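Support request, please re-run this one:
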Amino acid sequence: MSGFQDPRDQDPREPELPRWIFLHALRVTIGRTPVWLVAAGLLVALAAVQALPWLGYFDRTIGASYAPGAQLAELDETFRFDHRAAHAAVDVATQGAGGVVALLALLVGVFCAGGWLQVFLERTQGESVRLFFYGGTRFFWRFFRVLLCTLLLLQLLRWLLYGRPWDWLVLETICGLEKPDLELFDSERTVRRLALVQTSLFACGFALLAAWGDYTRTRLAVHGTRSAVWAGLCTAGALLRHPVRMLRPLVLLLAVEALVLGLAAWLVHELEGSLGPDSTGWAVFGLFSVGIGLHLARTIVRGSRYSACVLATRDVVRPLSRPDPWKRSIGGPGGPRYPIDGDEYAVSL
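Re-run finished. Output below.
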């Protein structure tokens, strides 16, 4: 396609790796304003589809039946009891649509991953949105297979920590219970500690699988290969060989995201505390603004993860050994290629 480059067509002389990859990734991603606005808008559109039935329900229910601002602070038990039938009907209707919206959100995430990586791997300036949609469609099915592998591994992790292996190893072997029944423990504190360990292990495993998925998608895009399983195995090996160099940028980006979440939680708490019968629409607008701002910030961090993955992958992963006829040559897309003789401006015809 005219105007686009294959990631394998890049100049082999890569720029020097920045000292702080996560800061460089944040700066580059923030500079791609149209891209993160489009990526955030896709999920906002899905959320709006899910929210429309509730908006219509509250508009019909509250309407002129309540004084302005009477239900702004909270929907009390009396309100929920008076409208329990209509509330239950909308709840059932949105539950069915919620599963479809959640599936579409996963697919949007797959699409955005391809878009982000195409933007970060492309050397040309401008046309970021066009590159984003091109990369989303180009890598979609490869990254969809990575998503399926990730879901299977998550299910395996869940079985290991919440299924028979945990019961046998921890409850029966280590704790010495006759059968895997938490009620056999003498202390409730022990049960809470086991639950904390279980949850912490699952959280760490989930984070590692998320990092593995990001690096697997990056490897597929950088090398231009198609096998998700082979790329996943190679990525697992690279993570074992270079855990600090590959995981440190993602951990620091996770800390940035946690800081943003903490700030947003504090703002929401302050705004909700000010709600009351005398509150105006500005309080609701403030809550809405915090939610949208948080979503934009998390979208930027998500894009920064792929930028960091590209830099770390180029640092620790060796390029493919197969000869690349596009290296050290120039020419129009789809046309003849001319080898570069000497510096990049001296062309041998």
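Confidence is low (pLDDT under 50) at residues 1-13, 342-349. The two ends are 24 Å apart (CA to CA).
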